[in-house]
Amino acid sequence: MKAWLEQALELDREDPLRAFRDEFWIPRHADGDDQLYFCGNSLGLQPRRLQDAMTRELEAWQSLGVEGHFAADTPWVSYHEVLREPLAGLVGALPSEVVAMNSLTVNLHLMMVSFFRPAGARRKILIERQPFPSDRYAVESQLRWHGLDPAECLVEFGAGADDRLIDESLIEEYLRDHGEQVALVLWPGVHYATGQRFDLQRIAAAARAAGAAIGFDLAHAAGNLPLQLHEAGADFACWCSYKYLNSGAGSVAGCFVHERHHDRAELPRLHGWWGADPATRFMMGPEFRPAKGADAWQLSNPPILAMAPLRASLQLFEEAGMAALREKSTRLTGWLADLVASEFDDLLEIITPGEPERRGCQLSLRVRAGREAGRRLFEHLAAGGAITDWREPDVIRVAPVPLYNRFEDCARFGALLRSFGCGK
Ligand SMILES: Cc1ncc(COP(=O)(O)O)c(C=O)c1O
User: Fold this and answer.
1) Ligand 1 centroid – CA 138 distance (Å)
2) Pairing of strands 386-387, 363-367
């Protein structure tokens, strides 16, 4: 493993983004060393600048009270607007198409209120097999809300029994053959369990050609991959900000609504006062006049203490640049994949696609010897200071994140695998 470590140290020295690691709090292992933190796909690390950003808002509240709505350095009444441009840049949208609000599952429901409109024979929702449970619960409950039977109307689409990946061509074929029954396709940008990245443009085109609405869950894609939501033509998309966006557990989520829907007065939507036109919002009248763009889907006044972290974190993405982050991510994850494949093929199968364009940061490693050995390996890694996560029945997810992970972390991860007693 020595040669791998030497090469890793050299790659870190040459890394143009290496200074960004110092922008983050890296948790410490019991022995005092930095943890090998590979869980940015679950909870991103805390940016150091976040504390100042939060303190500013706490102090504004201390000194201004209610006046903070208008007199804080960034007035709270329009705080969400400062997130618009950086969020739009992050997901490839027009500024009017994005808004930070609520949490991911809540936004999925709000979007389905508008975009799941079953009618006649077109009343099915197409999702991937093995979706994240919250997405499944959400679509199932939406079907029931419309008086539909999930057994008939929920299509969980997947490949063969032992193939966890889903080729886009199969989705296209399904929609060509059965698309007239599908009211909504809800698809992930990156699959949470396998790490497979999907071609959003192809899936959106196939859904739209079939006459179905298309929405994306970008929980594992936002901040992980460059996205082009406007161009892809999605009707809507939702994502959380506590994973690759490093904004803290349960932090405020993001939502995209394509421009073509902004002026559709006939589109059903749940309303709250923050979705109203800011020019009339405080007139307290009975009539709802929508704000422009995705803002009209807001319900409540925004949580400033959850938005300040997102704002601080988005600055880091702007400073590093998504193209540079993706470039490093491709090399970092590729390097880890090479290490695992060449040294630990007897122990681990990488189920994430091998082609860099079909994955983001995350590698999902199936422990060949099964669940029991897998759990022992997972615990061995944790005891040695490598924070990964376990997904039943036999997968260890490892996500080297280009903002704060090093090649050295990957090499040390390899050394821990070796000390488990496996590999060449
Ligand atoms: C793919 C996916 N969808 C939905 C959720 C649920 O998110 P929330 O609890 O923010 O609603 C998660 C959380 O990790 C997720 O990974």
Assistant:
1) 11
2) unpaired
Which residue, 113, 122, 96, is CA-closest to 293? Answer: 96
Give residue 397's pLDDT.
97
Q: What is the DSSP string of 88-156?
A: HHHHT--GGGEEE-S-HHHHHHHHHHHH---BTTB-EEEEESS--HHHHHHHHHHHHHTT--HHHHEEE
pTM of the model: 0.96
Among 43, 104, 136, say which to mutate for ligand 1: greatest number of ligand atoms within 8 Å of CB. 104
Q: Does the C-beta of 132 come closer than 6 Å to ligand 1? A: yes
CA dist., res. 168 & res. 197, Å (int):
10
Does the C-beta of 57 come closer than 6 Å to ligand 1?
no
Sign of CA dihedral 107, 110, 114, 119: positive
CA–CA dist 424, 412 (Å, integer): 16
Segment 173-180 shows an average pLDDT of 97
User: 196 in ligand 1 pocket by Cβ < 6 Å?
Assistant: no
